Amino acid sequence: MTRFIKNILCLVAVFALVLLVFPAVAPGGETVKVGLPISLTGKYDVLGMRNLHGAKLWAEWVNENGGIFVKDKGRKLPVKVIWYDTKSDKDTTIKLTEKLITEDKVHFLLGPYGSSLTLASAAITEKYGKLMFSHSGASDKIWKQGFKYVIGVLTPSSYYYKSTMELMASLDPPIKTVAIITEDNPFNLSIRKGIKRWAKELGFKVVFDEVYPSPPTDLSPILSKVKRLKPDAILTCSHFKDGVLLAKQAAELRVYTKFFALGSAPSTVEWWKAVGPKGAQYTAATSQWEPMDAPDPSRFSNWFGPSMTANQFNAWYKKRWGKPTDFRGTQAFAAGLVLQWAIERAGSLNTDEVRAALNKMDIITLYGRSKIDPATGIQVGHGMVVAQWQDGKKVVVGPPDIAVGKLVYPRPR
Fold first, then answer.
1. pTM to 2 decimals?
2. Which residues pair with 315 in a beta bridge?
3. pLDDT tens for residues 15-64?
4. Architecture of the 159-287+386-398 domain
5. Which CATH number does the domain 22-155+292-382 belong to among 3.40.50.2300, 3.40.640.10, 2.60.40.1220, 1.10.260.40?
6. Domain chopping of the chain, boundaries
7. pLDDT at position 85 over 70
């Protein structure tokens, strides 16, 4: 066989392999373009990067499996995620959201990190009639604006503490008094509103309720007030960096309560290292998702996406990016799955047809259940997980049907 023929055969083999791996490449390079204005610098940098990694992993998985089938195109199309760094800044988020729509001509968007930035971005996506999937903006305020094209992927913030406070209500000795400490922004104020609602329904007495400015530099005056009141539990509404400050200063001031939860801040994988064992030990987290041997794909007829448990996804994510993830990486991946399901169900890239398909969605993914309220787009299917840090590890302690460990309660002094 001549060298020329061998070279031709090699080229044919390579081309066949490309078609096998990327059969979704359409004539003219047509793709499903998904925009992502995300925080890679600024106060949300760590969590924004996790979002980006989750979104990119979803796109890679889609393309390795041939793309998204779009019926009215008669073929599968690959996904292209286009992202820009918002620098965790509202004005930059607005500009970049508009750039993605008007210059990059994206079909759909995944939202930025945080409720404040998601609200800012939503005003633009609504203006242009583009669907945006809110994977990291949970404030109920987002869905009270009358937006037609904002789809919630995560549990709304007013429900963040529901599972945690139901667990608290079952404890012995009983928790009777609660102190609430809140960062002043839409997301955390919405969580605070939910805490007060569940406190009233479950019979807890709120003995302290204070809001601090964002970003805080010193929370010791607030913690000193709480210490004098001696509540049974402290529930904070905070992001990661101010949550770290709260936990550290509570440890320094020896603020003791039987139960100490800091919202979603302790769900972050860096929590133990950032706070230190003295402050992080036995702190509880409200979490959208945690690595565990659930959900089991074989149990659900409405499963969509990769057939793997949360633990298996975490291992996959770690292999790809060098570090494990918390729910921030997973929910961005899940937002992609929700979009993919809706496009395939609609059979089209038309915004209104995809939006209509979402009204009928009720699916299970490695992130859990996804179902929206058709009128508002707010997420109504997904539930929260309760975790507690025990000797450097996050342990899922609630709700009871998915707990893999026991809550250490009361917290040792």
1. 0.85
2. none
3. 443 333 333 344 446 999 999 999 999 999 999 999 999 999 999 999 99
4. 3-Layer(aba) Sandwich (3.40)
5. 3.40.50.2300
6. 22-155+292-382, 159-287+386-398
7. yes
